Amino acid sequence: TTFKENPYAGEIAYTDHCIGQVVAKRKDLDMYESSLIIVTGDHGEMLGEHGETTHMYYIYQSAIKVPLIFKLPGSMAARRIDDLASIIDIVPTVCDLMAIDPPAGIQGKTLAPYFGSRPPQSEDRYLYCESLHATKYEANSLLGLVSRQWKYIQTTRPELYDLQEDPEEQTNLIETHPQQARSLKDHLSHVLEQTVRQREDQADVPLDPELLKHLRSLGYVGGSGVKEDFTFDQSKEDPKDPIRFHNEYRKIMHLIEQNNLTSARALGEQLLKQHPGIPRLHESLSGVALNQKDYPNAIRYGEKALALKPGRIEVHYNLGVAYSESGQNEAAARQFERVLELMPEDQATFLAKRVQVHNQLGVSYARQTKFDLAIIQFKETLKLNPQQPRMLNTLAWTLVNCPDQALRDPSEALALAQQACALTQSRHPVYLNTLAAVYEALHHFEEAAKTTEKALALAQAKDDQALVTKLQGQLDQLRKALADPN
Question: Which candidate in 296, 323, 391, 447 could, as Cys together with 332 as Cys, close a disulfide (CB 3.0–4.6 Å)?
Answer without folding.
Answer: 323
